[in-house]
Design a protein that fits this description.
The chain is of the alpha+beta class. 36% of the residues lie in helices and 31% in strands. The chain has one domain: Alpha-Beta Plaits. 9% of the residues are buried.
Length: 100
C-alpha cells in the first residue's frame, strides 16, 4: 500500500476551474483501486506554524501499489481535463509514503 499526500496551491480566482478538474479526477481514483482518505481545505486558524505558503487543499489518497497509482496518472479521461488543472493550480507538492 502506498500513500500519496498532495498539497495544492491554487492560482487566485481559479477555484471554480480547479473544482471542475476535481469533479473529473476524484471519481477516477477508485477505478485504479485507490481510496480518497482525506480531502481537506484548512481554514486560517487551523495553522499552528508554517514556513510555506498555505495550501488551498490537502489530499491523502491510498493505492495498493505504485503501479495502480501510475495507471491513475496515465488515465486517458483524466488527461483530457489536465488543461483545467494547469489553468488553476499554481503548484503542488506530492509526497509518497507508506504506513509504518
Amino acid at each position: 500500500m502506498i500513500y500519496i499526500t498532495q498539497l495544492i496551491f491554487i492560482k487566485e480566482g481559479q477555484e471554480k476551474t480547479f473544482e471542475a478538474f476535481e469533479t473529473v479526477a476524484m471519481p477516477l481514483i477508485s477505478k485504479y483501486k485507490g481510496t480518497l482518505l482525506l480531502r481537506l481545505r484548512p481554514a486560517g486558524e487551523a495553522y499552528i506554524e508554517t514556513n510555506i505558503e498555505r495550501p488551498y487543499e490537502v489530499h491523502l489518497v491510498s493505492f495498493p501499489s505504485e503501479e495502480d497509482f501510475q495507471r491513475f496518472m496515465r488515465d486517458e479521461e483524466r488527461k483530457n481535463f489536465l488543461h483545467l488543472k494547469e489553468k488553476s493550480i499554481k503548484t503542488s507538492i506530492l509526497i509518497k509514503g507508506e504506513r509504518i
